[in-house]
Specification:
Layout (H helix, E strand, L loop, with lengths): L2 H28 L9 H8 L13 E5 L3 E2 L7 E7 L9 E17 L5 E15 L4 E4 L3 E5 L11 H5 L2 H18 L1
Helix pairs in contact: 1-2
Amino acid sequence: MTLKEDLAAVEAELKRLEARKRELYDLSIKAPAHEKLCMDSIAEMLAEPFGELELPIEVTGLHFTGKTIRENGYPKRSLVRIRPCGAEFEQRTFLGLYLGDVATTMGCSFNRETGVLELFLAHHNPAIWIPSRQRIVFGYESWWGPIESAEQLRAITNESIDGLWYVQALKALSSNGEKDVQG
């Protein structure tokens, strides 16, 4: 048997095993509770074929979309106050400059009919330059807000963070979760 024939046999066996695995998840949906492999909603997803790509693929084109930096409600170079979460910032509030929402990852998709691989920028997040620290900090690693008036120059405090509706909601969910787990 040649290497190509051996590889083709292995790929055929893998396809057979994947089909059997989907079949088992389908059977799990109808099975009694003590025999179920997982929750029915997950079994339903796993019972469906994922539409695997046959490798190798032939890429006939490459298409790039998206912006590296985009505005998202605030004009670029707006003054902001920012309190980074990192310990090295010692819970201090700094003057910052909003640079725009910067792409933090890249994704791709492949069109089987055309053979075009599309690359796109994704997961944009506010990027803020802190001049006094010579550093860019992202929105997801800080508390920040625009400065539109002199009274907004105040520091971001633990009290102001705790007063945010979503922080209060997370704390309430967390305390309810502890009660549910304990009793």
